[in-house]
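Why predict the complex rather than its parts? Because the way molecules touch one another can change local conformation, and only a joint prediction can capture that. The input here totals 218 residues.
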Amino acid sequence: MVTKFRTLDELVTYLKARGVSEARVTGKVATSTSPGGGQVTFRGRLIVSADLEGDERAAYEERVHRVVSDTGAPALPADTKREGDLHAAQMALSGQLKAYRAGYQAVMQSAREAVTRALEMAGITVVEGSD
Amino acid sequence: MRITIAVHGHFKSTSSVGNDEMSFTLPDADGLRIRDLLETLNIVEEEIRQVTFNGRNGRLDEAVRHRARLEFFPRERIKGARSSVEG
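Output of the joint prediction:
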């Protein structure tokens, strides 16, 4: 079961009261593209979670501000079909990754560092998720 | 279609995906397979230990479809080795 908190402070207070000193920070980014792929919109979230007893967890989700990026990619024909599908999908993926690295990756990293700093100042150690 | 990709281990620093789990919107592509994404994601096939497709073991020749969630797990790197050689 996951107990969700509205603010990071509430989560930290809860964890400290229960003697929990470790948390994970996970980033998630959703992209959406304009028709033709010329613009990519990024919406990011940071999920701070900590394991409690048993299979219980505590979590807080912070939204990272939305960014609209101009990829400069030429518009793809709306009727791209069959043999062109594969290339169009690869191009779309490449364009979104390029736009992400050009700006939003740094936005997410900055948000992650701010959350990590706040947790560490409160005495919570941020650990890597298990692979 | 919409697909979600996450990478683990050293792929977080070596792939184009990075630390964050990412969801992409792609044109529908009947012939698109997991293997077709690797070059764009900057993931070397030989370095993959496991790929999961919607939480189960996946195959690189498997077709990618709407709402696919892919996770790539790398083989462990040997300290000091420049590359690993498969036997």
